[in-house]
Amino acid sequence: MSLSPARLDRFARHIVLPEIGGAGQVALSRRHVVVMGLGGIGSPALQYLAASGIGRFTLVDDDTVDVSNLQRQTIFTQRDTGHGKATSARRWLANFDDTLSVEISDARVTKDNAGGIVAGADLVLDGTDNFATRLAVSDACVAASVPLLSAAVGRFQGQVGAFAGHLADQPCYRCFVGDAFDAEDCDTCAEDGMLGAMAGWTGSFAAMQAVRVLLEGVSAFGRPQWGRLHLLDGMAPGMRTLNIAKDPACKGCAST
To answer: Which pTM value belongs to this model?
Structure first.
């Protein structure tokens, strides 16, 4: 597979980077990414993932666009209010790059349907807003041997971590948070607030880390950083990194 002259022009600034190059750009065009949640993280992340040349997306969100979302969810406009986020995001992608392959799901993600959604993907980027969904997605990724990039944001803080719990020596997201959070209740930005630009920073950083994962074994930029959790502090501002250990008793990945 090669890139057309139009695609070469579009991604020229990537291709001239020796850490990505032509081989990396072609690899990205073959990749399939599932974006779970199209809110404060999924929205800016999707913009940069699409701009990077990833060829196929599955967009998952059961919510509709509210005017309060527009402060941070940058793919939506006033015309989208009242419409489904997944449908609106697909429309944005079609306007941005009509060569992309896009599927959508507006069903709520549960432990029963998560496996079918993530199956066959090269990466899942999870920006959902409650632990029950995140753990269901993590368990499904482990079962399907699909890498997971988990990102969260609130107030002035963000976090992004790469997990490969299907690998014998790597943790999953459940190793990080444990089993106590298998519940729908979770702090929300409606209650706690969120700086819109903080969502943008976290989402764009998640997109950069996604490209790292997708280029593993292809280019010099492909260093997934499994089990490393990056903490973004918008107040300082600054960043620090933690290493997450695999839990030998984890019910999500201990058998791998």
So the answer is: 0.95
